[in-house]
Every structure is written in C-alpha cells, then in structure tokens.
Batch of 2 targets.
Target 1
Amino acid sequence: MQKSLHIDPGKCTGCMQCESACSLVNEGVVNPSKSRIKVFTFHDEGRFVPYTCTQCDEAWCMQACPVDAIVLNPLNGSKDVIDDICVGCKVCTIACPFGTINYNTSTGKVVKCDLCGGDPECVDACPTQAITYVDANATGLDKMRAWAAKTDNAAGA
C-alpha cells in the first residue's frame, strides 16, 4: 500500500515542530531554513499552512532533470534525489510548480522531501496531527467524493 502525506491546515498551530524535526533528521541541525517542509504563515488571517513535495505522479522535477538524478522510490512512492548524480543545475526547481525543491548552498545539490524513507519525521513531530501519513488512496478525489456524498445525504435529510 502506497502512503502519502496528508496536510490539514485547519489543525496547524504554527508551532514549526515539523520544520525542526525535518532539518534535524535530514541535515543534522535544528534549522527551519534547511527543512524540506515549510509552514507558510498568513499573518492577517492568523492561519498556518504546512507544505512540502506532493510526490506528483507526473513528477515534472524528475522529467526535467537532465542527468536523471531524481528517481522513483518503489518502496514508498517518493521521488528521491540521488546526491551522487545531482549536478546542482536547479532545472528541477524551475520545473516544480509548487516550489518544493530547494537548492542547498552547502552541498551544491537540490533537496526535497523523500518521506524519510517511509517514516516521515514531520508526522511524528506534529502535536496536532495537522500532518498525517495515510493510505494514498484516501486522499484527493476519493476523499472529496466521500465528503460530498456525506454533505448531500445530510442536506437531503
């Protein structure tokens, strides 16, 4: 069963624990600027929205890489950057429509979420369950359909 990150921004308090955990596990330091998940703050509305790589099926980043340094991880479905192959050209950062691939100036390579090999630290660190790791089939269109069906049933009652 493939799993994916599910983000519920309504539960996010902006504590940034996900960013701290991610940077610690992946970079060895607690430094949110090195995190592969970011929390966008809407100050005027008082809301926070975590975002990271969605591991797209089409994976434009993977298709754009001129040296094939981004590969599909068959175990968890993540699109992983192979550091030994990456030349740091940043073409993938341009190809990603969501801006979730970043250039690491320390290494001269790009970094993106790899789902921590199938055990995402951001999920464990989130105290409100705003970030969960769920069956990939339970997200997206099927989830919206299920919600719509419940809404229609409730409205007709």
Target 2
Amino acid sequence: MIKLTFCLRRRKDLSYEEFHDYWLNKHGPLVRTQMKALKIRKYVQVHQLNEPEFNEAIGKSRNAPEPYDGVAELWYDSVESISENGQTPEAREAGRILLEDERNFIDLENSPLWFNEEHVIIPEDEGASN
C-alpha cells in the first residue's frame, strides 16, 4: 500500500471551526464521490484538537513550528495505480474537482504533501491498553 499524506493549513480567512466543518462535512463526502475514479482505497482525516494551550506547550517543548490544522491520509494499492490516475479522463476530472474544492478551505501554498509507505512499529493489538 502507498499513502498520500497531506499536511493541511487552513486559509487565513477561515476560523478553526469553519475549516474543520468544511473539511469534514463538505470535502470529505466529495472525496468519497471521487474515490473509484482515483482508485482510493482508504481516506482518513486527522483533525487538530482545538486545545491551543496544549498544542502551544508541546510545540514549545520541542521548539517546533506551528502545528498543521490537520492531516489527510489517502491509501492506494501501488505506485502503478497512482500513475494510472493521470492516464484516464475520469481520474483527471476527479482530481480537478477535488483540487478546485481544496481551494475553498486549504492554504495550498503552505500545505505540503507526499507519497510514502508505512512501517508499523507498534500495531494496535500491542498498544498500551493491553
């Protein structure tokens, strides 16, 4: 499996609440409508907790840059399946639709994305709750 990780920063004109509401309730369902055309196997939204003091404290403890507003994770079967997306009119149109919508709530110039592979070190069934 190959994953696309997209670290999101909201547009400056949107509040925390507006950004997260749009992303979850408008963009999320739109991604679902395009998943077959883009061969998306799984889509997860990771929303920043609205805990400014907590986020500031952890950032200061590591001298970290300002946190992202969220992370989108999209899974694909393979590099080949991703490459095939650029070759079909349906996938190109789906990509155009999603990018057009992303402009409504994401600061695209300050939101990096990349393809990657996961290496699970501690699986869920070995987690601390056991």
